[in-house]
Known about the structure:
10% of the residues lie in helices and 27% in strands. It is built from 2 helices and 26 strands. The strands form 6 sheets. A 7-stranded parallel sheet has the order 9-12-15-18-21-24-26, with helices on one face. A 6-stranded parallel sheet has the order 10-13-16-19-22-25, with no helix packed on it.
Amino acid sequence: xxxxxxxxxxxxxxxxxxxxxxxxxxxxxxxxxxxxxxxxxxxxxxxxxxxxxxxxxxxxxxxxxxxxxxxxxxxxxxxxxxxxxxxxxxxxxxxxxxxxxxxxxxxxxxxxxxxxxxxxxxxxxxxxxxxxxxxxxxxxxxxxxxxxxxxxxxxxxxxxxxxxxxxxxxxxxxxxxxxxxxxxxxxxxxxxxxxxxxxxxxxxxxxxxxxxxxxxxxxxxxxxxxxxxxxxxxxxx
Length: 237
């Protein structure tokens, strides 16, 4: 069985400096992926480059996957997960997220309650500081940057080419969409959604389940469940 090197949330803090660094956990556990949509295919591409393809995929219906993914065995009933002991596998949460959706979080919570652990998927094409903290099941995709002092809690996504600047803190289940930028010392509470191409300036606090829509620039704090949208452009004939 091939050994995989995936971060699953182990972090070390240096007592003298307070700097938090991430550590890789080597494991011989197999990977089982949940989901087979667009986000799943992006993760499969990363895992394929790292020679860490899952041995099984759980999805609602048969997915048409390109080679080399077509040979991965598919399961379509949650009950079939019992074939895989939590002692033998790590799960990959391959369900993406849109604003207002909770399915990704529900999947994470459901299988954690059953005793499973989630592997983090960190692209080798991302720039991730050695002095940051990554929680269980974090996904950091191609071209993204995570700088020093950043803390990212469980089940977060830092999508393609997103930038998380120094000392930002992302609580559980946060989504940072492609091309978004969080300047230094931004705090995103649980379930915050940062849309594609959005910018959040430094020292901003964003409340639980708030939305910074695609293309918006946030220059003040947001309260829980508040939403900010960019200026609308109108074409005058």
